[in-house]
Design goal:
- The structure holds three protein chains of three kinds.
- Chain B is α/β, with parallel strands linked by helices.
- In chain B, 37% of the residues lie in helices and 20% in strands.
- In chain B, strands 6, 7, 8, 9, 10, 11, 12, 13 and 14 form a nine-stranded mixed sheet that branches. Chain B has a five-stranded parallel sheet with strand order 2-1-3-4-5, with helices on both faces.
- Chain C contains eleven helices and two strands, in the order ααααββααααααα.
- A two-stranded antiparallel ribbon of chain C has the order 1-2.
- In chain C, helix 1 packs parallel to helix 5 and helix 9 crosses helix 10.
- The longest helix of chain C is centred in the first third of the chain and has 32 residues.
- The termini of chain C are far apart.
- Chains in contact: A-B, A-C, B-C.
- At the B-C interface, helix 2, strand 7, helix 7, helix 8 and helix 9 of B face helix 1, helix 4, strand 2 and helix 10 of C.
Chain lengths: 318, 391, 287
């Protein structure tokens, strides 16, 4: 089975149980439903990063480029005042993004280590500057998405994206799908070779595998998942801004993933919830919330050697 | 100055009892909820703090106008990050049910806020962000601005340059909304009168690598330089300009933010810089003198334009509540009332245009002995053309 | 572009590059010797600038303020290394990233609490406030010449220490083989503390030197951080010579790019870095 660790199964069971019920209790309060939705969307983004960094071994600080592209690509290919079909256009957006990540990956995967980090950072910053400096794409002020897409499949329309609760479930579905996709890939032969190439590249190459190709495909998969998260994020409030693709955004996702437990994938969900939860708590507590946030992060790094997931596993695994 | 948010416990209580929605009518005696969406950390923090201080002072001074309703502040730090804007605005609107949302400083955040709040059951008052779109194509009945539009401070400077006999001007700013719009506004009036912009340079925002540009200016030798920079960038540009010996040789003109809140850091380097703004600290208006002293008494330092704009937002709220005898439950009535207000501002009295932007004087100022001295009124009752606004 | 303007911009670029070297030197030293990726390096630069501003306001003397600030920074470096960094030697790079990001938050918050968020300036110290006539229309500030001189002096001092002294020998040995150095009886813990503290002090000194030429605002640390990394990566992580060459290249290229194609100038540096990495994936002077 794909969820091998007991901790993982327990956590995910509790998580999905609570997540399914949240809108039922908070129906009236669209802010909290919205906030939970954003956290779910971020979790997808962080899981895709965790896959790349923790499992494939590609530490990228440019992941937010694809996150930002989700919204911008959507705006680029859809007519301004028409409600297009969500599934079809999501497919197009993901397709274009996959192509872009293929090209970028083919170039950047020639480097490794700190150089890979810097080159991915440089590319995402260039993407940021491109959209920030452009007048056609809204520049630093960003752009609106005026019409939310409709979600009919073969004429059956069951999700209305203007309804916060429906959007929430769409985001939750995205979390589930991302989780399953990543886990299945990791369990497959492809996934095992990819992990082998992270643990011992020379030996894997010696066995005859073209690890460049394996890494490239993984990079495309990870980036495309990030684009899907970004698309949802843009559609949620109908707003895109170049700031969504800065290195700070990539860095925040990296923090959430390390905090949760690098490489565990389910840890990414845990890390996102914890980070956002702490942020919310501290922001409402004091104007000097940054001091508390920074101290909390430092404490967690020093005390939790393998992140929150690692700590839970220590408690729950026999 | 207290660092702990006033009524933080009230906010915490509200969040812990999530799911409560009340549709009670807000009558006199019910708290007036004012949400502040401003940056309290990061590079714009000073502007956020000044706006908040001004706002709170206005509400304190005009407490009697509130007809007994206590004021409840909800403060959220935007960090000037556009990605958080719609979510925080949703918090103000849906979670806290704020009657008024004051913010933001940054134009990108303004766009995100407007997406969430326009047409909704709350009044948004912008105490700083000057982006043209807010009172242009995206104008909305429930969005007001007590600051300026990017066009206003720079447009009259074109005429000023012509009057001073400058024919060839070098224009430089950052490549973003406010920078481009400021240079465009200057260009509009300057070229209409026969002036020539010999070079227009847009630097990536927020680069402060001015050294090479100052050298290029010296080489090009224009009659004058027109610029928009603000905050740290303004400080550095003016200092670099002076350090390279251009001060006094090539006149420096600018949109007023070049010398606003920056004079102490700029020191002698700012002497002689000529700017246009809808305010000046030594403005000879009785309300200004009163306000400056009251602000200093309350906070221990003198205010700048950002505080004035926040103060006027507070006055707008207080005056509206007063005219409605404390009943702000009908947002349409609130809008109708606010639209007709004349704000007795430290910058001089102003009214709102149809697009809800201030119709205000633009003062010509020159820095003398570390102070922006008002030379004249560069433009009287200047109304932003609000291109694209359908109000 | 006239020849005269060309030389003017070249000098501007070199001066900017020298300052970049000073900022980047601490980062590459710490990474090269200890393998620590210190993302809070920009915060140290900020601390230097704020400290010198504060002490100039208190003492009225730039020299006194500079010395005081440098000493405090050294102490701060020792404190941080002993309390926090030491615990990370056996952990992976990502944990260092996370810890130092947490430190950025803490330092930014402390800056706001201690000194407030208003923008500040430091006036050029009286003795150095003159200008030398430069072109017909402009003059070159003496302080910038002085700053360039300091950067060169520190570069020379670093070179001397690293290649000609025993400490430098230990640093070079520690870079290539930590266990061996330990086995030879050298107290590697103290060595690391010294190196880290020097790295922090170098960053702070660059903040001190830059203070009269910049504005002192919140977030000033993050804005130099990226350029710093670009310089170090171009030069080769851990190589001080590389950082020097990389800094000069970045300084000159960004200066010319700023005047020749201003709107694209921020991208040029990244493009240059990518090109260098494609040809030499470990930087120009990789170890």
């Amino acid at each position: 089975m794909i969820f091998e660790k007991r901790t993982e199964r327990i956590f995910l069971a509790i998580f999905f149980l609570i997540a399914l019920c949240i809108p039922l209790f908070l129906e009236d309060n669209s802010f909290f439903v919205g906030k939970s939705t954003t956290i779910l969307i971020l979790a997808v983004f962080v899981m895709s990063l965790d896959f790349l960094v923790g499992r494939v071994g590609l530490v990228t600080l440019g992941h937010a480029l694809f996150y930002g592209l989700g919204g911008y690509l959507f705006i680029l290919i859809t007519p301004e005042y028409e409600a297009v079909n969500f599934w079809i256009y999501a497919f197009y957006v993901l397709g274009i993004s996959a192509l872009i990540s293929l090209v970028i990956g083919a170039v950047v995967l020639r480097t490794s280590g700190i150089y890979f980090i810097m080159i991915t950072l440089a590319i995402s910053q260039m993407g940021y500057y491109f959209f920030f400096d452009s007048l056609e794409f809204g520049g630093g002020d960003g752009l609106f998405i005026f019409m939310k897409p409709e979600t009919s499949i073969f004429g059956l329309n069951f999700l209305n994206l203007d309804n916060p609760t429906h959007f929430y479930y769409l985001a939750l579905l995205a979390v589930l799908i991302t989780l399953l996709v990543i886990k299945i890939i990791l369990r497959s032969r492809f996934g095992r070779i990819v992990e082998a190439s992270r643990l011992n590249p020379e030996r894997t190459e010696a066995l005859g595998y073209n690890i460049f190709a394996f890494r490239l495909i993984s990079y495309v998969i990870g980036s495309t998942l990030a684009t899907y998260a970004g698309l949802l994020f843009a559609l949620q409030y109908g707003y895109v801004n170049p700031q969504f693709m800065t290195w700070e955004m990539s860095g925040t996702a990296l923090v959430m993933s390390i905090l949760g437990g690098m490489g565990t994938i389910y840890g990414a969900i845990l890390g996102t919830i914890t980070y956002e939860g702490l942020l919310y708590l501290f922001e409402h507590m004091s104007e000097d919330w940054m001091l508390f946030m920074g101290s909390a992060i430092i404490l967690m790094v020093l005390l939790l050697r393998k992140g929150l997931a690692g700590y839970l596993e220590k408690l729950l695994e026999k | 100055m207290s660092r702990i948010t006033f009524l933080a416990s009230a906010v915490l209580a509200t969040t812990l009892t999530a799911g409560l929605s009340s549709s009670a009518l807000a009558a006199a005696g019910d708290p007036v909820k004012i949400g502040l969406m401003l940056p309290f950390s990061g590079i714009y923090a000073q502007l956020g703090e000044a706006g908040r201080d001004g706002l709170k002072l206005a509400l304190k001074e005009n407490a009697s106008e509130l007809h007994g309703s206590p004021v409840e502040f909800i403060e959220l730090d935007t960090e000037a990050k556009p990605s958080r804007a719609p979510e925080l605005a949703s918090s103000m609107l849906n979670q806290h049910k704020a009657d008024f949302v004051i913010g933001p400083v940054h134009s990108g955040v303004a766009m995100g806020m407007i997406k969430m709040l326009r047409g909704k059951d709350t009044i948004m008052i912008i105490p700083n962000a000057g982006s043209a779109a807010a009172t242009g194509p995206l104008c909305s009945p429930n969005v007001f601005r007590t600051s300026f539009s990017s066009w206003q401070p720079s447009y009259p400077m074109g005429k000023v340059a012509l009057e001073k006999g400058y024919k060839k001007v070098y224009a430089i700013s950052w490549n973003y909304g406010m920078g481009r719009e400021s240079l465009d506004a200057f260009k509009e009036s300057f070229t209409a009168g026969g002036g020539e912009i010999i070079e227009e340079v847009l630097l990536p925002f927020p680069s402060t690598n001015f050294q090479s540009h100052v050298s290029a200016i010296a080489d090009k030798n224009p009659d004058a330089v027109f610029t928009f920079f603000a905050g740290g960038g303004a400080i550095k540009f003016v200092k670099d300009y002076d350090a390279m010996g251009l001060r006094g040789k090539i006149p420096l003109l600018g949109s007023g933010f070049l010398t606003e809140g920056t004079l102490q850091a700029q020191g002698d380097a700012a002497e002689g810089v000529v700017t246009g703004l809808h305010y000046a600290e030594e403005l000879d208006v009785p309300k200004n003198r009163e306000f400056r002293e009251a602000f200093n008494t309350e906070y221990g330092h003198y205010p700048d334009i950002y505080a004035v704009q926040g103060y006027d937002a507070g006055q707008a709220i207080a005056n509206t509540i007063n005219q409605l005898n404390g009943d702000i439950s009908d947002k349409q009535a609130v809008i109708a009332t606010m639209e007709k207000l004349t704000i007795d501002s430290p910058r001089g009295k102003f009214t709102f245009s149809k697009a809800h932007n201030p119709i205000q004087n633009i003062y010509l100022r020159e820095v003398k002995d570390g102070v922006n001295v008002v030379q004249s009124i560069a433009a009287e009752a200047l109304e932003d053309p609000a291109r694209g606004c359908k109000l | 572009m006239s020849t005269e303007l060309f030389f003017v911009q070249l000098i501007n670029g070199v001066q900017y590059g020298l300052l970049l070297f000073l900022i980047a030197s601490g980062l590459t030293l710490v990474f090269g010797v200890m393998g620590i990726l210190n993302l809070a390096h920009g915060s140290m630069y900020m601390v230097g600038a704020y400290l010198v501003w504060y002490f100039v306001a208190v003492t009225g003397s730039f020299t006194a303020a500079a010395i005081l600030s440098a000493v405090i920074a050294l102490g701060l470096g020792i404190l941080i290394e002993r309390l926090l960094i030491q615990r990370l030697y056996n952990r992976n790079h990502l944990d260092q990233v996370l810890l130092t990001i947490g430190m950025i938050f803490v330092f930014n918050s402390l800056q706001s609490i201690l000194w407030g968020n208003d923008p500040y300036g430091v006036s050029v110290p009286g003795a150095l406030s003159g200008s030398v006539p430069f072109t017909d229309n402009s003059s070159y500030p003496v302080f910038r010449i002085f700053a360039a001189g300091i950067c060169i002096a520190i570069a020379a001092a670093l070179y001397f220490v690293v290649s000609k002294t025993r400490l430098g020998m230990l640093i070079r040995a520690g870079e290539s083989n930590r266990e061996m150095v330990e086995a030879l009886g050298v107290n590697i813990k103290s060595l690391y503390t010294i190196v880290f503290a020097i790295g922090v002090m170098l960053a702070a000194i660059s903040g001190i030197i830059a203070a009269p030429m910049r504005s002192i605002v919140p977030g000033m640390g993050e804005s130099v951080l990226i350029t710093c990394f670009v310089v170090v990566v171009i030069g080769g992580m851990g190589s001080i010579k590389g950082a020097f060459v990389g800094a000069l290249l970045v300084g000159v290229i960004s200066t010319f790019a700023a005047v020749l194609m201003p709107t694209m100038s921020n991208m040029i540096i990244y493009i240059f870095m990518i090109l260098v990495l494609l040809v030499k994936p470990q930087g120009l002077f990789a170890k």
